[in-house]
Specification:
Blueprint: H1 3-16, E1 19-26, E2 29-34, E3 38-43, E4 57-63, E5 66-72, H2 73-76, E6 89-97, E7 100-108, E8 110-117, E9 122-123, E10 137-143, E11 146-151, H3 153-156, H4 162-167
Parallel strand pairs: 2-11, 5-7
Antiparallel strand pairs: 1-2, 1-8, 3-6, 4-5, 6-7, 9-10, 10-11
């Protein structure tokens, strides 16, 4: 395959990623989720802890009669925990795992906005060597002078055992 053909293929892949993203912050880092994965955004609420779950699992909430697990993205990404503020919220997302759909909540410091990001403004995630897994990153969205880390939420939460967590309640 020629260099031009490879470049065209890479451009097509990035254009497939263009679309609307809900952006949010964890500390000073900015992230984006495909808007079609987002069910709703709710204020932070009491979370029931579930014993013997990984540290990044905050617990479960009862959302209009449905018990859904809540994941602390800061903990999942190895970041320091932060105090809950008025801006702290839970983004309820729908993910696919083993052919099934699950709703789960992710705790974020604050939601920013919905952005329409063109494929030409999305770059592949940089390669950090074999020791760093970047499979969960869809790409890097360039917005003005800032960069948003665009997440593949199915892969971010891919190893969480949601069925087990919600059945224990």
């Amino acid at each position: 395959m020629s260099n031009a053909a490879i470049q065209n293929e890479q451009t097509k892949v990035l254009q497939d990623k263009e679309g609307k993203y809900l952006t949010f912050a964890l500390g000073s880092e900015e992230y984006g989720l495909e808007i079609l994965k987002v069910r709703e955004i709710i204020g932070y609420m009491d979370i029931t802890a579930v014993p013997q779950t990984p540290s990044y699992v905050k617990g479960v909430i009862n959302l209009r009669g449905q018990v859904i697990p809540v994941i602390d993205l800061r903990s999942k990404f190895g970041m320091e925990t932060a105090k809950v503020t008025e801006e702290t919220c839970i983004i309820v997302v729908e993910i696919r795992q083993n052919g099934k759909k699950f709703s789960t909540g992710i705790v974020v410091d604050h939601v920013q906005e919905v952005l329409d990001i063109d494929g030409e403004n999305i770059e592949e995630s940089p390669q950090f060597g074999s020791s760093v897994n970047t499979d969960f990153i869809l790409g890097m969205g360039k917005v003005g002078e800032s960069v948003k880390i665009l997440l593949d939420i199915d892969k971010v939460l891919g190893n969480c055992e949601f069925e087990k967590i919600t059945q224990e309640q």
